[in-house]
Amino acid sequence: MMNLPTPWVMAPMADVTHACFRDLVAQWGGCGLYYTEILNARIVASSRPEKDPYCDAGLLDRPRACQIVGDDPAVVAKAFEKLQALGRFDAYDFNLGCCCGMPARYGWGAALLRRPHRVREILREARRVLEGPLLVKMRIPDGPEDTAKRWAELLHECGVDAVVLHARYSGDLFKRPARWGVLKRWKRILTMPLIGNGDVFSPQDAVRMMEETGCDGVMIGRAALMRPWIFSDLYRFRSAGTLPTPPDVAPMVGQYGLLLRQWMPQQEAVRRFRRFAFWICQNYSYGAHYYHRSCRAGNLEAMVETLQGFLSRDVLSDYPVRPFMM
Ligand SMILES: Cc1cc2nc3c(=O)[nH]c(=O)nc-3n(C[C@H](O)[C@H](O)[C@H](O)COP(=O)(O)O)c2cc1C
Q1: In this model, does residue 69 exceed pLDDT 50?
Q2: Given ligand 1 and candidates 108, 166, 225, which is best to mutate, with the most ligand atoms within 8 Å of its CB?
Q3: Ligand 1 pocket: which of 9, 13, 205 to mutate (most atoms within 8 A of CB)
Q4: What's the CATH class of domain 8-240?
Q5: N or C: which end of the chain has fewer CB within 10 A?
Q6: Which atom of ligand 1 sits closest to the CA of residue 201?
């Protein structure tokens, strides 16, 4: 496994973790690995990823991993090969965790956990073409007592360099708390590094996950959407035991508006700003009101200005963050 500058990893998140969001996060430092959004193997394999905005590289977001979803070994390998040829990525991840939307409809992502033989074929092909580190991001597979052991063997045989475990079963969706106890069990069984994931809502949570489960790194999803600077908080918390004063949120909102304008066509920039506002607003008691008012403002500039107006008059809540989607 590559040496990460810090053990904190930003999760892949569809519709958000484009290069411009990763660059926003990277300006504060502290993040040890940045993920792209989920990339469809069929599309990457059959098109020119150098022109695909989903494969963009930011200016500051290193080291950087790309994530592929699919179920055909040859297509997945072709997709990884093309991404490798771009020279933009430091690590390559295969998705075995997504259980909604397009991947679920095709039986990809977490649905493949029911087809270990197919996963073996895919990972072997991926390993054959990839020179860089190969990761899998997975949910907990359903099955009898020895399921974890069998998966650990499979992943080892296939030459997987690290595992990200989102500590929920597919059937849990986001409805029940992440099962950190399973992370502890998997850490004892796996032969490669384990990155724990699920319900880290503060720097304290991240440190506690490492201490309680023994995992080698921690991946953060929703909390990084609500606090894009959380990785620098984590860095400070772990080294000095204190938390820095949070940055002013209103200027950050303006900065993200500019980044979107720079990177995206107008319509996509508006759509992405809405997603961003949805998460940022969850830091505030009256956030739902701010969100709806900002979405109704019309164009991107008006949305940014409306949201900035609300946020500059309000106070950010303390950690832990409380995302609506649990
Ligand atoms: C908006 C959103 C989009 C997501 N998109 C992806 C994705 O593209 N690929 C993936 O493997 N997981 C995806 N996830 C799952 C996250 O990577 C992560 O595993 C999950 O949110 C649990 O981490 P958390 O409790 O820190 O949020 C997504 C989650 C959210 C909230």
Answers
A1: yes
A2: 166
A3: 13
A4: alpha beta
A5: C
A6: 26
82-87 contacts at long range (C-beta below 8 A, 24 or more positions apart): 82/44, 82/45, 82/49, 83/39, 83/44, 83/49, 83/55, 84/129, 84/130, 84/131, 84/132, 86/49, 86/50, 86/55
Which atom of ligand 1 is nearest to 279's Cα?
A: 1
Query: Closest residue (by CA) to atom 10 of ligand 1?
Result: 12
Q: Give, in order, the Cα–Cα distances in Å from 246 to each of 164, 180, 266.
A: 28, 28, 30
Percentage with pLDDT > 90 across the chain: 95
What is the spatial distance between Cα 25 and Cα 60, in angstroms, rounded to a whole number? 9
Kindly indicate the confidence band of residue 325, based on its pLDDT and cuts at 50, 70 and 90.
Answer: low
- Separation between Cα atoms, residue 65 and residue 78, nearest integer Å: 17
